[in-house]
Design goal:
Number of domains of chain A: 2
Number of domains of chain B: 2
CATH topology of the largest domain in chain A: MetI-like fold
Helix content of chain B: 25-40%
Strand content of chain B: 25-35%
Order of helices and strands of chain B: EEEHEEEHHHEHEHEEH
Structural class of chain B: alpha/beta
Number of helices of chain A: 10
CATH architecture of the largest domain in chain B: 3-Layer(aba) Sandwich
Largest sheet of chain B: 6 strands, mixed
Helix content of chain A: over 70%
CATH class of the largest domain in chain B: Alpha Beta
Number of strands of chain A: 0
Oligomer: heterodimer
Strand order of the largest sheet of chain B: 6-7-8-3-9-10
CATH class of the largest domain in chain A: Mainly Alpha
CATH superfamily of the largest domain in chain B: P-loop containing nucleotide triphosphate hydrolases
Order of helices and strands of chain A: HHHHHHHHHH
Shape of chain B: globular
Distance between the termini of chain A: 29 Å
């Protein structure tokens, strides 16, 4: 049977998906064990036990300076920045994207500006943000917003602009004006797309968060990774990276679930 | 007999391309006008101009003696071949939408007793098009024929002065199409509608219409085919068919 026609069942899919992950884990364990056989104090490829005890220490031990539990303080700080950044960007994408997509005069006036902002590499703006907003939380959140909002705005605007003309005309023949079309036709149909845009923005948002934390911060997941790098403590870095990956996956799954629950019509409801 | 809709010397041009030229037309209330013609003869342009989606370059169009405003409004209902219904609303929501827009300009939503009343009215309209059992489905869950039934119900709830149909049954298979013909004939009689229907199916045009309008170019310049527009080359009033047979079909 041709590969393009092969249907993979659910169980089979889980099994197939696990193979490369398990292989990678085995390869790591073998390499790590070999290094530790030669040098029991090896720091570059820590054993799982070493990583677990290092992470446990980060979770349990209060920081000497602040008295906070380091791991949880880092997680909270990072999630707060990320949440604020994602929230503001999502709101902007919805409001700006909606009017940009649905109202031709607004698109003519602000479309070029949004396009212009979108092509600036956000990291290049980081010095400006630090100068203008200081080294505090605002600059970090602002970097995330500037990094992801323009792409999300353009995505939502494009989707709203591509709604069939027939729908807009039909709404008008049913007595709707611009405001009602925005509210009842464009907005509900923009929401599932907004969630897709948000999911795609999660990756870049983490990149900008960790960049900002690496450069100027005193707490946060990105800050910690870049701090302990100086001591080659891979037994902290690797669990932190795995934790970030887990958080990102959880957010993605939660958004997918939310979209299916809130907008069943957008996901090919069973006929 | 005074005309409901009048077109006087209407021209539609895109740049130097003339699509419609010198269309003069009166449509009487209660008539069912079928518009036929070859592809590219401006059938759909004609419909969009009457609808208000496009503007005539020259000429005047009046509805009830009043010039048409340059945009669509609730006095003219429309059913397109596709994309006529809102995918994010249920069947009931799609029909209630029209009532909500007029009644609630700020929120576009009704609640409480007003919503109940609107839903009852919408349910009645849905029963009239045969969708009484599908009120809580989303359009994506329904067949093409059911979606067109919904689109008709959605348009009729506003009691438009004119109902415009743009190849409404073109994408349906023949059996469903016959059902839809019976339905639209029934509704046309029941609600005293004035209908303008664009179709490429000549048989459909003659079966349903009380008047058939053929749009085509009167003249043709082989060196500059775009310089002559189409107009009504045939305008055939039909004697109304005896309703007995079709009433039986509908019932």
């Amino acid at each position: 049977m041709r590969w393009v026609n092969r249907q993979i069942g659910r169980r089979q899919a889980i099994g197939l998906g696990a193979i490369p992950i398990v292989l990678l884990a085995i390869a790591y364990l073998v390499a790590s064990a070999q290094r530790h056989a030669l040098n029991p104090a090896d720091k570059i490829l820590p054993l799982p036990t070493g990583m677990a005890s290092a992470l446990w220490k980060m979770m349990q031990q209060p920081d000497a300076l602040t008295g906070n539990l380091v791991f949880w303080a880092d997680t909270l700080a990072s999630l707060q920045r990320l949440g604020l950044g994602l929230g503001i960007a999502t709101l902007m994408a919805l409001l700006v994207g909606l009017v940009l997509g649905a109202l031709p005069p607004v698109r003519a006036m602000f479309g070029p500006l949004v396009t212009g902002i979108a092509v600036i590499p956000p990291i290049a703006l980081l010095p400006i943000l630090f100068i203008a907003l200081g080294l505090g939380e605002t600059a970090k959140v602002a970097l995330i917003v500037i990094g992801i909002a323009p792409v999300m705005v353009r995505d939502v605007a494009g989707h709203v602009g591509a709604l069939p003309r027939e729908q807009i005309v039909k709404a008008q023949t049913l007595g709707a004006g611009s405001w009602q079309i925005l509210l009842r036709v464009a907005l509900p149909q923009a929401l599932p797309r907004l969630i897709v845009a948000l999911k795609l923005a999660l990756g870049p948002a983490w990149v900008f968060l960790i960049s900002a934390e690496a450069i100027a911060s005193d707490v946060g997941l990105g800050y910690r990774i870049f701090l302990v790098r100086r001591y080659l403590t891979m037994d902290v870095i690797i669990p932190y990276v795995a934790w970030i990956a887990l958080l990102a996956i959880l957010m993605d799954v939660a958004l997918t679930k939310l979209s299916h629950k809130a907008f069943p019509w957008a996901h090919g409801v069973a006929r | 007999m005074s005309a409901l809709l009048s077109l006087r010397d209407v021209w539609v041009e895109y740049g130097d391309r003339i699509v419609l030229e010198k269309v003069d037309l009166d449509v009487e209330a209660g008539s069912f006008v079928s518009v036929v013609g070859p592809s590219g003869a401006g059938k759909s342009t004609f419909l969009r101009v009457v609808l208000g989606q496009e503007q005539a370059t020259r000429g005047t169009i009046t509805l009830d003696g009043v010039p048409l405003p340059p945009e669509c409004g609730p006095d003219r209902g429309v059913v397109f071949q596709k994309y006529s219904v809102f995918p994010h609303l249920t069947v009931l929501g799609n029909v209630v939408f029209g009532l909500e827009c007029t009644a609630s300009p700020l929120l576009g939503r009704l609640c409480g007793a007003k919503r109940k009343a609107a839903e009852a009215e919408a349910a009645e309209m849905l029963a009239a098009v045969g969708l009484a059992d599908s009120m809580h489905l989303y359009p994506a869950q329904m067949s093409g024929g059911m979606q067109q039934r919904l689109a008709i119900a959605q348009a009729l709830i506003k009691r438009p002065r004119i109902l415009l149909l743009d190849e409404p049954f073109g994408a349906l298979d023949p059996g469903i199409r016959a059902d839809m013909h019976a339905l639209i004939t029934k509704l046309w009689r029941q609600y005293d509608l004035t209908v303008i229907m664009v179709t490429h199916d000549i048989r459909e045009a003659f079966t349903l219409g009380t008047r058939v309008l053929a749009l085509d170019k009167r003249r043709h310049d082989p060196h500059a085919p775009h310089r002559f527009g189409a107009t009504a080359v045939y305008d055939l009033p039909l004697t109304k068919p005896a309703p007995v047979e079709e009433e039986d079909e509908a019932a």
